[in-house]
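Deliverable D4.2, example record:
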Amino acid sequence: MYQQQAKASRRTMPRRKWWRLAAEQGDAGAQYNLGRIYATGRGVPQDIVLAHMWSHLAALQGHEQAQHRRDIAASQMTPDQIAEAQRMAREWMAKHQ
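Output generated by the structure prediction step:
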């Protein structure tokens, strides 16, 4: 739902805000997109922990590109960063399921 609105509302609201809304509702594609923008720092401060968290949430739903992005992020992270991203993902799942 929000993905379609994001395409239609590019001039009035940045896509990342629509992706955030859709991701919060559990949309794997939106979660993947948030992981991608946090990984690259496009439009947001680059944050590898958030990139891993959002990619992991999408990967858990079977999103193949997210699985790949999560693995790339993990290869650039310390064990403590990975643990933090996993903790954040568990907290997100507990809150939203």
